[in-house]
């Protein structure tokens, strides 16, 4: 199931700011850098930008030889492993399940680190690099998104800590079928207010 979202710019911003939307991998360290899942650009005052937020995820891995393994559908509770097959390195579903709230990627190669990427709607959502042999990456996401105004961010790329420290709006999507995300605030002069985001026209699933 997809959640249908619609970003609406009701702000007084005249700087053509970019809007970044991302999720946090809650299984990792607090200071972990996150990926800009969606970046909305050139959305002027009064404009809106519809997009979908899929519940489904996919996983892909890369090895130290520069090989990228095809994306596979992933759901919470699954454990994937990178193994050395007769044909070379492959990503496969492990026979033993993991925690029901997580997707895990395990490096079962004899040598060489791997990287793992979680995708939503074809765009990177979370990235873990340098997973050593015998180690695993754990991905766990709450049903929330983070949204804020940012500059110099690129969709699908890791954001720097300065960008992330300015974004503190967490929006829960739990049980929602569709909603508008309305941005207000901004503008020049002493009457300028901080940017704010809120849900409107919420339809529950």
UniProtKB/TrEMBL annotation:
<protein>
    <recommendedName>
        <fullName>Aromatic ring-opening dioxygenase LigA</fullName>
    </recommendedName>
</protein>
């Amino acid at each position: 199931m997809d959640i249908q979202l619609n970003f609406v710019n009701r702000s007084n911003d005249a700087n053509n700011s970019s809007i970044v939307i991302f999720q946090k991998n809650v299984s990792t360290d607090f200071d972990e850098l996150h990926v800009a899942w969606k970046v909305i650009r050139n959305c002027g005052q009064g404009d809106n930008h519809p997009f979908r937020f899929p519940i489904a995820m996919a996983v892909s891995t890369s090895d130290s030889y520069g090989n990228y393994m095809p994306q596979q559908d992933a759901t919470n509770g699954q454990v994937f492993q990178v193994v050395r097959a007769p044909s070379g390195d492959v990503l496969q579903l492990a026979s033993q399940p993991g925690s029901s709230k997580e997707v895990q990627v395990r490096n079962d190669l004899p040598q060489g680190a791997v990287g793992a990427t979680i995708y939503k709607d074809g765009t990177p959502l979370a990235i873990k690099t340098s997973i050593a042999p015998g180690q695993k990456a754990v991905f766990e996401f709450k049903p929330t998104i983070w949204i804020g105004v940012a500059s110099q961010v690129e969709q699908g790329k890791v954001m720097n800590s300065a960008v992330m420290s300015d974004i503190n709006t967490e929006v829960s999507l739990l049980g929602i079928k569709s909603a508008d995300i309305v941005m207000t605030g901004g503008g020049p002069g002493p009457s300028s207010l901080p940017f704010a985001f809120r849900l409107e026209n919420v339809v529950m699933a």
